[in-house]
Each structure stands twice: as structure tokens, then as C-alpha cells.
Amino acid sequence: MTTFRVLGPLAAHRDGTAVPLAPSLRRLLAVFLSRPNRPIPGPALVEELWAGRTPANAHKVMQVYVHRLRRTLVDESLIGHGASGYVLRVAEGDLDSLRFGAMVERAEVAFRRGELAKAAELLAGGLALWSGDPFADARDTPAVEDESRRLIEARVRAHEIHGDVLLALGRHVEAVTDLVALTRSLPMRERLRGQAMLALHRCGRRAEALELFRECRATLAEQLGIEPGAELQILHRAILRGDPVFGGRVAAPPRNVWQHGADRRGGGQVARWEAAAPPAKRGFLRRAG
């Protein structure tokens, strides 16, 4: 069985043993793995491999590379060829990026159903597949660069969903260190910052939660000339007041909390917070906003 890794340095293994790859074959394999199970026309493959510096016999050389890669991977059926072009056929379980995407999708379904423990387990397992930047040593073609950017965004989104799930489970002590670290590496992601603020507040670290908001406000003002979004400002005011809604466990998972691209006026977020709050406390967030 041949397996592949791209969530870090590119690697191929045959029955558990690393497959050595010459630079030209590594480049070709990276292009195939950036589009798994999707045909790549011959001219597109040539353009990816030579990026405008195409030799006169490029198509023939590309065919030779494909032949060599098939032999290197041992299982020549992995790379097919038809009217639509060349395709690397790989099962979900044999490519870590496909496995990661499937685990995140299943986690989102579990979260929406209220199966929080299952969602947390799936997300933790998916994030554990990463060992560095995607295609870390093979990002020198346009297709690979595009797929790398997509995977990086998918990883950040998985962290955001994981934060939602852990907070909904009341596991803020477990989540707080990673969430704070993520705000350092991703200072513009308000969803992660809000999760970190909430986790710190629930851990009794109110001053640190407020400092995270001050840092966010300063960064946004300096780099973009804007204020934090309405959702983050509402959370900030609630923490300042020490609102009890934010100090304990959420009874049910608020759907799409801190949704990427959410309405910056904060109405949808406030409604979700209210839905998770005890009946006696509902409505105070809108008055505070």
C-alpha cells in the first residue's frame, strides 16, 4: 500500500517504508497531490512543471517523468491517463490532506447534532495529522502553492471550530493555552481571539482576557485603521462587567459561533449567546450592545 503526506514535508511511503524521490519526481508528485483524483491535462501539467520556461521537448520529458514516477511508486495503476489527462488515484485514508478534510466535515456534522465529544475527538485527530506547513519542501509550482493556501485556511478554520467545541463542552482549561498561542500567530482572526478571551475569563484570568482585546484593538488600528468587530466588543464589555453567562459551561453548542465572515454588527452572534444563556439572563446582551 502506498500512502502520502503533504501536511508538512511531502512524503511517500510504500508498506511503511519511505520512497526516495528525485527532485523532478518530487515536483511532479506534488502537483498530482495538489489535485488528487482530478485529471490534469498534459499541457497544464507541462506548465506546472516548467512555469513558462518550457523546453522544446517538454511534453516528451513530462511523459518520461510520469513513467519514472509510476515505477518509483511501484504500483503503476496509481497514475492513470485518459482523454482528460493524467490523474493520481488515491483513497481518503492514503492521503493525509483528504483524511483531514473528511474528519473536519464529520466533526462539523457532529457539532450541529450536539455530539460534542465526538466532534472534539475528530477535530483533535485531524489537527494531529499536521507536522508543519503543507507541502513544506515542494511549494514551487502554482497548483501546489494554491493548494497550500487552501489547506492553511482549512487548518485555521478547524482550530476555530475546535475552540467552539471545547468551550461548549466547558473544557476551557484544556483549550486556553492553545487558543492564546493561536492569537499570537494569527492576530487578525477575531473568532480565535474571542474564544481565547472567553477561555481566559472562565479560567479566572480576567485581566489577561481584557489585555487580549486591547492588543487586538491596537493591532487593527495600527495596521488597518479599524475597530474590532461588534461581536468582540460585546464580549469585551461583558467581561468587563463580569457577566455570569460567560463564566460557566455552555449548555448547548451555539451554532457557527464566531463564524468566519459573520455580520460585524454582531446581531447573529448576540442571538446565539442569548440562546445559550439561562432564561433569566436573556436580553441583557442586546441592552449591553
UniProtKB/TrEMBL annotation:
PROSITE patterns: OMPR_PHOB. Residues 1-90 form the OmpR/PhoB-type domain. Gene3D superfamilies: Tetratricopeptide repeat domain, Winged helix-like DNA-binding domain superfamily/Winged helix DNA-binding domain. InterPro entries: AfsR-DnrI-RedD_regulator, BTAD, OmpR/PhoB-type_DNA-bd, Sig_transdc_resp-reg_C-effctor, TPR-like_helical_dom_sf, WH-like_DNA-bd_sf. Keywords: DNA-binding, Transcription, Transcription regulation. Pfam families: BTAD, Trans_reg_C. The keyword DNA-binding applies. GO terms for biological process: phosphorelay signal transduction system; regulation of DNA-templated transcription. Residues 1-90 bind DNA. CDD domains: BTAD. The keyword DNA-binding applies. GO terms for molecular function: DNA binding. Belongs to the AfsR/DnrI/RedD regulatory family. This is DNA-binding SARP family transcriptional activator. It comes from Allocatelliglobosispora scoriae. The lineage of its organism: Bacteria, Bacillati, Actinomycetota, Actinomycetes, Micromonosporales.
